[in-house]
Amino acid sequence: MGFDDRLELFVTQQARVLVAVFAIAGVACLVAAGYVFLTPTIQTVTEETNVQSVETGVDTRAVVTQDTTLYERGSTLENRSVYFMTISPDVSFRVHTDVPANQSVNVTQRLVLRTVGVRDGSSFYENETVLVDDRTTVTNGTAVNAPVLNVSALDRDLQQKRTETSGVGQFRTSLNLTVTYQTGSYSGTLEASTPLVFSGRAYYLERSLADDRRHSTTVARSVTQPSTPVEYGGLAAAALVLFGLAGLVIRTEYRSDPEELRTKISHSRHEEWISRGEFPTDANKPYISILTLEDLVDVAIDTNRRVIFDPEIETYAVIDSSEIYYYSLDETNTHAWLNL
What's the pTM value of the predicted model, to 2 decimals? Predict the structure, then answer.
């Protein structure tokens, strides 16, 4: 109860200041809520426009030239993981580049077979055979070329080179693809390469020949975002709470008696010096009125007496050998009780 009484006393004493603070804060919240409601947020967002993609790749195809237990003569093998020279001595490389449709795109496709002799990490022989070197303007979205390579003849040529070099070093072959393009808005280059591996009478591409690129143009624009009910509603709710607190302060000031609150606080603070009892009314001693309970407790301490509290008439008293000191919130009631 002591804290509640102190809080109520503080509110009562500072009522005007607190009401002004709560009222001003409430008005400010209402103004802010109106401003938020009437002023939408403008955000700048970015988005990609004129998106275009270019892709290139190489498909492999080989025709079976004789009957085997694996394939039938005349059948076409496509994009197999391995081919055999005794079955399919020729292979075609279908170079295809997909570009944006419904526009003219300049495309250059170049596929090169490269042979390199290497010893101790350094090359001693290099040769390039251009399989595709084509420049075209594409309007249907795809550029295609399909050169044919006699793999058996290439293998014989490599065997001859190994014989001529007495097995010194290694001969390696690779396919290198380069595609350049120019659309109405963008230009670029795609590149891919892979070793062409020979293993006995088998041959294969170690990895796929493919590349792609995506183009776009970033555009910034302003977007208006209307205020949400959470934003302006929260401010309005805060204003109502503040106005409610101001009303509570006014009500507390109206119904509270500061002197009574101070007495309750003093009673709580000096409770060890106060005892409940009956106020003496027939003593032949002079009655001395004390202005506050604090002062009355000081008298009790000075005279080494206790304070007697009579709850029936709400009066405190210290009975000395020659006087009776008392304090009452309502002295009129006490005087009537004492017939003073």
Answer: 0.57
